[in-house]
Design a protein that fits this description.
mainly beta, single chain, 8-stranded antiparallel β-barrel, Lipocalin
C-alpha cells in the first residue's frame, strides 16, 4: 500500500476557510453519492500547488498535471497518470478524471470544496485534510 504524507482523519483548522492550494482535498462525494474508496482501500484525493500543478490519486492510478484559475473557474489539464490496471477503482477513476477535466466552477466554504459543471451542479465534493 502507498503511504501518504497527510492524515485523512485530521481536518484543517476548525472554523478556518482553507485556500485551494492550502490543503490536500479528499473526495467525499461524486455525482451526489458518497465516494467509495479506490484500489487498496485508498481515498481519492488531490493537491493543487501554488505554482499551478495538480497531483493525486484517482482510484487506481496517481495523476498529475496543471491547472489555472480564473475567478471561480478552474481550468484543469492536461493530465497524465500512471497506467496500472486495478481490480477495484477503474470506473471510479474514469468518472473522477472526467469530472475534473476541462473548465469547471468551484467554491470553497470553510473546509469543503465543491467542483461544479457549467450548469452549477456539484459533480465532486471534497473536504480538506491537514498536510503533515
Amino acid at each position: 500500500m502507498l503511504t501518504h504524507d497527510f492524515d485523512e482523519h485530521l481536518p484543517a483548522k476548525a472554523g478556518a476557510t482553507v485556500g485551494l492550494s492550502d490543503a490536500r482535498w479528499i473526495l467525499t462525494e461524486i455525482d451526489g453519492q458518497p465516494a467509495p474508496r479506490g484500489n487498496a482501500d485508498q481515498v481519492i484525493h488531490m493537491t493543487l500547488t501554488a505554482d499551478g500543478k495538480i497531483h493525486g490519486f484517482s482510484g487506481c492510478n496517481q495523476f498529475m498535471g496543471t491547472y489555472r484559475l480564473d475567478g471561480d473557474r478552474l481550468k484543469i489539464g492536461p493530465l497524465a497518470s500512471t497506467r496500472m490496471a486495478c481490480e477495484r477503482g477503474m470506473e471510479l477513476e474514469r468518472q473522477f478524471l472526467q469530472a475534473l477535466r476541462g473548465s469547471v466552477h468551484f467554491d470553497i466554504s470553510e473546509q469543503l470544496l465543491n467542483v461544479r459543471n457549467a450548469d452549477g451542479q456539484v459533480m465532486l465534493r471534497f473536504r480538506s485534510s491537514r498536510l503533515r
